[in-house]
C-alpha cells in the first residue's frame, strides 16, 4: 500500500512541477534559443474596433472618449459598439457619439458571440480590433497593434493587458496583478520563437480575412485569436499595445468570473480548437497549448491528490513530512488571507498569492465539472467593481512595468 501511495505522491509532484516550473522554463529557454523574427513597420491600415457591450452605461462614455483620443488617423479608424440587449442607457450614450465615426448596433439579448459577429459584419476595416468596454488604451496602442501586420505571415496581434497600479484592497486583484506580470513574460518568449498561445479580450487584432465567426459557449478572445493559427498564420505579442484594466473587485465576484472564463476556456480548447493539440501538424505550439491551457487548468487534481496522500506517508520519510507541513502552511496562508482580507496583514503578498492560487484552482475544479456534465455558459451580467481609469495617469507610472517589455492569469 505504501508503494502505491508513494507512486501517487511522486506522480502528482511531477505533474505540478512540470506545470509551474518546467514548462515556463522551457518557454523562456526556447525564446532565447529559437528566434522567428517578423517584419514591423509604422503602417496605418483601416481599422475597425468592435466592442460588445451589455449594460455598460457606467463605462461606455469613458471608453469611447479614450479610444477616440488615440493617436491614429481618424479617416482610417471606426468604432462599432454591438449592444447586446442593453437597457440601462448604454445605447443612448453611444448614439451621442454618432458624429465621431462611432456606430451603434442595438441588438436583442443573444450573447457576446453573436454580438461580435454582428459587429464584424457591420464593419469595414482591414484590421479588426476587439476590446472590452472597461479597458482603457494607451494613446499609441492602435499603432503598436498595427505594426506587426506589415509582415504578411502575421495574422493576429495580441496586446498587453496591464492592471492599474492603484490599491484594490482585493486579494484576488493583488494576485491577478502578480500573475499577469509573469504571464506577460511568457507571451513575449512564445512570440519570439513562434506563436503566442492566445490573446486577451481587452486588446487584440486580427486580419479581417481570417475572421470566421465566434463559436458560442467559449471564450471569444481565445477562439478568434487561435483561429489565426489554425489558418496557418502567426499570432504575435505586441508589448507596446497596452490596455489598462482595473484590478479585480471582491473575491466573490472574481471567483465567479474565473469559473466562467475557465469553463468556457476548457471548452474552447477541448471542443472547438482540439485540432490545435495535434503536434504533428502544429508542432511546439500544440505542446504549449496543452501545457498552458489544459494541464494548468487541470492541475487542481494532482494538487488535491498530493494533499490527500501526503499525511498517509508521514512515517515513510522526512521528505513526506516536509511536503505535508509545507502544504498545510501554504493553504493556511491562503486561509489567513481570506479571513483577514480587509486588514493590512491580509493584503501581504505572502497571503494574497496563496489565496489567488487557491481561488483559481477551485474555480478550475468547478469548471472541469461543468465541462464533464456538458454545462455551457453563454450569458452573464457584467459585474464591474470600478469605473474605468484614464490611461494617461498610468502611462508614465507603468513605464517601469513595460520598459522590460523589449525583453500576460488567463484565459
List its traits.
single chain; 411 residues; alpha/beta; Spore Coat Polysaccharide Biosynthesis Protein SpsA, Chain A; 8-stranded mixed β-sheet; 15 helices; 50% helix
What does it look like?
This protein is of the alpha/beta class. The protein has one domain (1-411): Spore Coat Polysaccharide Biosynthesis Protein SpsA, Chain A (Alpha-Beta Complex). Helices cover 50% and strands 13% of the residues. It has helices at 2-33, 60-68, 90-95, 112-122, 141-146, 171-193, 220-230, 251-272, 279-282, 284-298, 300-309, 318-339, 349-372, 391-397, 399-402; strands at 47-53, 77-84, 102-107, 127-131, 136-137, 154-163, 203-207, 234-245. An eight-stranded mixed sheet has the order 3-2-1-4-7-6-8-5. Helix 2 (60-68) links the parallel strand 1 (47-53) and strand 2 (77-84). The radius of gyration is 22 Å and the shape is globular.
